[in-house]
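Hi there,

I know you've been waiting on this one. I reran it after we fixed the sequence typo, so this is the corrected version. Both the input and the resulting structure follow.
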Amino acid sequence: MNHFQYFLLICLLASPNGLQAQCSASGGLLLNSQEAIDAFNCNSVESDLIIEGEDITNLNGLSELTTIKGDFLIRYTSITSFAGLNNLTNINSFRIIDNNQLLNLEGLENITEVNGNLSIDGNNSLLSLDGLDNLGVVTEEFSIGGNNQLVDLSALGKIGGIGRSLIIDHNAELTEINGFHQLLGIGLEDGLLRILKNPKLSSLAGFANLKTVQNLDISKNDVLTSLEGLNELKNVQQKMWIVQNLQLKNLYALSSLESVGTDLSHELSIHDNPQLEDINGLANLHTISGDFFMQDNVSLLNCCVVLCWEDIIQGSISIYNNGDNCMTYYELPSTCDEPDCSTLASIQKLDLQVQQTYPNPTSKNLNISFVALENNTLSYQIFNRKGQLMELQSLQA
């Protein structure tokens, strides 16, 4: 602890009658020893709070802490759980990084919302996220990465809102993504669901109720054979990448997917999946607003469904170096029988003019006035400020 921070903390604690106080320090409050933890006697931290130091083995001295108004970073400690923070309820961005003795997150049961980013990264002994059982909302990005022993995400069963992105990457022993059953949508604006480089991951079952994401990236998961768990996914609002999943065989789990992208800057990219045999799981797509890339899927022999997409792909089409019958887009007519496109939705570019949206924001009724210059089926999504999908419906224009 630098001299300024130490002096300020002592002054705040030396209040009349030994009463607890609010603590803060310019540039953030630093607790970098077990002695500093044990001497702590504040119920609220008004600034950022940083806890670091290998000699820190427990957080019992923080038992009266209820609120951290700045960001909370805990790193390089030797704690095994968060016991001692049982009264903590109000928190903004929270980073749990490189605590190599940490086994679980028990002690955080009273946290229901993280009003900012939540990062759980590089904790090499972490086995589960037990302790986050009551967490319902992360308003910005939620990242779970580089936790080499992590095998269980089931504590995340109450997560119903992620405001920007969910990133699960580089978890060496993770075999299944469970939890997340309350999650209907992920991300506003440039939000992202990224499942990347989890070498033993074989199941996405926790996403069974997920219906919409802004961007979707499923890449470099070596033993993932299917995308089962994404069966209810209907819309990818911007970009979708399925890349370098060495054992991925098919995309049947995406049979509910209806649209990818909303303008020409968006894309659907499927490449370098060496065991992928067909893409018929995408047969119900009726909108690809940007470019379509499909390349270097060397076992892909059945891609005739692409011939049904000529009117729905608004950008360019790039197909090359797949299996024998899918080498290039221009060869498809000669290698495919005329495909049955009767199951695909009728595709037309909808001319839609939104005239009014009021009141916005609202806590009750929302009115949307629009003019559709032709008959068609529209879909709409309503999110709250925390990124929770509140409604997903279709209507006839």
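Quick highlight: The first strand starts at residue 21 and ends at 23.

Best,
R. S.
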